[in-house]
Amino acid sequence: MDIKAKLHALTDAGYAAFQRRLIPNIPPEMIIGVRTPELRKLAKELIKSGEADGFIASLPHDSFEENQLHAFIINACRDFGECVVNIERFLPYVDNWAICDALLPRVFAKHRGELISHIEKWLRSEHEYTLRFGIGMLMKHCLGEDYRPNYPEMVAEIRSDAYYVNMMRAWYFAEALTLRYDEILPCIEEGRLDRWTHNMAIRKSCESFRVPPEHKAYLRGLRR
Questions:
Q1: What is the pLDDT of residues 10-43, one digit of tens each?
Q2: DSSP string of 164-198?
Q3: CA-to-CA distance for 147 and 139, rounded, in angstroms?
């Protein structure tokens, strides 16, 4: 299959313009303008035809859509070890929040015990989107029954000037306050986060329909 030709045949100029506004930190010419349902469909076709492995082995890609297609193929991987190898190979090429957040491997939910050591490694990375990915995986997989008290500390201790890292840190604490209010509140009360992330976490918590009004009122009083 000529993947580049297939993607260009699916171009939606209006959608391309919309995507370019959402992801301003990559060259606009990298965005072809293919809608997500079409990319998911194409990912399934590549997997079914046996062409997916060859495609994800070919890095770097030339377009945003190829990177998104790559992420969707990884998400469908059923073998945990293979999935991690593919993630590690791909992360250095991830250069925007949309591709980073599109990486949601389904197999991770069945291997949370094994996943945490990889998350800890990603949290030590100096690469902006590897670090964002690690925080996102900790938020998605380790705020439920696999939660440990040191996990929020791992996120609180991160110091970065990268906007998309700190936004994910704020998102993590907003979600943690929703699910584990009493356990996470001391992180906010004691000012363990930098000022921007602290205030953004409170803002995102107060925007959530899942946070009760009394919690929102108290959190607003903790703004710095």
A1: 999 999 999 999 999 999 999 999 999 999 999 9
A2: HHHHHHHHHHHHHHHH-HHHHHHHHHTT-S-HHHH
A3: 10
